[in-house]
Design brief:
Elements: E1 2-5, E2 7-10, E3 12-17, H1 27-44, E4 48-51, H2 65-75, E5 80-87, H3 93-106, E6 111-116, H4 123-128, H5 140-151, E7 172-176, H6 179-188, E8 192-194, H7 203-213, E9 225-233, H8 237-243, H9 245-255, H10 275-284, E10 288-291, H11 293-307, E11 311-315, H12 321-336
Parallel strand pairs: 3-4, 3-11, 4-5, 5-6, 6-7, 7-8, 8-9, 9-10, 9-11
Antiparallel strand pairs: 1-2
Helix pairs in contact: 1-2, 1-12, 3-5, 6-7, 9-10, 11-12
Family: To bacterial alkanal monooxygenase alpha and beta chains.
InterPro entries: Bact_Lucif_Oxidored, CmoO-like, Luciferase-like_dom, Luciferase-like_sf
Protein name: LLM class flavin-dependent oxidoreductase
């Protein structure tokens, strides 16, 4: 897929599915919709389909991320499927090596392992996950080194080995919203994905840090950066703006300290938020492109031009499944247009 907008940018599109559970729906409905979207995305030419680890959030169904990845990979044929991401400090590296070694053995050449260092949860949930509350993610490089060691070929000096996992070539990505993972990804020569779809502030400095600190590795000979954005596309600008209110409502609840299911869209947000709340939500969702095909093409092109991203991964928190499918279809058609 490519964009032509001022300059030429080769832009690969992928899908980030937050597996939304909608009001009036169930997790079972969500998983059926996830697989349906993945099958459509595969036909529309999206490169990869990622799912994210979140816990204690009733509106997100992908807490058992590896299980859902297996479900999607089993129901598709060619699209890459992976994590965007697994929160490594929540898990023993051996367990993740075994899980993704199993997935790669079942679906060879199609599995990605994106890793983050945030808890993906609140402190009480972190305790329930048996994550030490004194850990702030600073041990992430050591956990990553341990995990990569389990994938390394041959026993070497290892007394504990990952079966399956050992010797498998599973692409590892580092995900983040700050300079920590950007610098680490650069120093290790790994691909880097920035979570600008919900944490936009440090996007450009993080990309610069990643590229400037990059050292070629067996994984990559040059930097490879992915940027996360939100897209809500519809046949008219007015309908897209209306559909986007579901995501705005979800963020409004977050800043009010609430969690819940994804709500249906509303005709206007004006009576529902204060001016201050509106500014916070708009700021956090800065990298959201909303509109018809022309607006989406222009908006995504602007982000591609600004970031020089090698790939853009798209989230679309849309209440109605048919409208969500249509949004990703419009995006694929718009970016594929020459």
């Amino acid at each position: 897929m490519s964009l032509i907008e001022g300059e030429f940018f080769v832009t690969i599109l992928s899908v980030l599915d937050l597996a939304p559970v909608v009001q009036g729906g169930t997790a079972a409905d969500t998983f059926r919709n996830t697989l349906d979207l993945a099958r459509h995305a595969e036909r529309w030419g999206y490169r990869r389909y990622w799912l994210a680890e979140h816990h204690n959030m009733p509106g997100i169904a992908s807490s058992a991320t590896s299980v859902v990845i297996g479900y999607v990979a089993a129901g598709t044929s060619t699209i890459r499927v992976g994590s965007g991401g697994i929160m490594l400090p929540n898990h023993a590296p051996l367990v993740i090596a075994e899980q993704f070694g199993t997935l790669e053995s079942m679906y060879p050449g199609r599995i990605d392992l994106g890793l983050g260092r945030a808890p993906g949860s609140d402190q009480l949930t972190a305790r329930a996950l048996r994550r030490g509350l004194d850990r702030d993610g600073q041990d992430f490089p050591q956990l990553l080194e341990e995990l990569r060691g389990f994938f390394a070929p041959g026993p070497g000096a290892k007394s504990v080995r990952a079966h399956p996992g050992e010797g498998l070539d599973i692409p590892i990505w580092l995900l983040g919203s700050s300079g920590f993972s950007a610098r680490l990804a650069g120093e290790l020569g790994l691909p880097f994905a920035f979570a600008s779809h919900f944490a936009p502030d440090y996007l450009l400095p993080a990309l610069e840090l990643y590229r400037s600190s990059f050292r070629p590795s067996e994984a990559l000979d040059k930097p490879y950066a992915m940027v996360g954005i939100n897209v809500v596309a519809a046949d008219t600008n007015e309908e897209a703006e209306r559909l986007a209110t579901s995501h705005q409502l979800a963020f409004l609840n977050i800043i009010r300290g609430r969690t819940g299911l994804l709500a249906p869209p509303v005709d206007s947000m004006d009576p529902l938020w204060s001016e201050h709340e509106r500014e916070i939500v708009k700021s956090q969702l800065k990298y959201t492109v909303t509109g018809d095909a022309d607006a989406v093409r222009e908006g995504v092109a602007a982000i591609a031009r600004m970031t020089q991203a090698d790939e853009i991964i798209v989230a679309g928190q849309i209440y109605d499944h048919a409208a969500r499918l249509r949004s990703f279809e419009i995006l694929a058609d718009a970016i594929g247009d020459r």
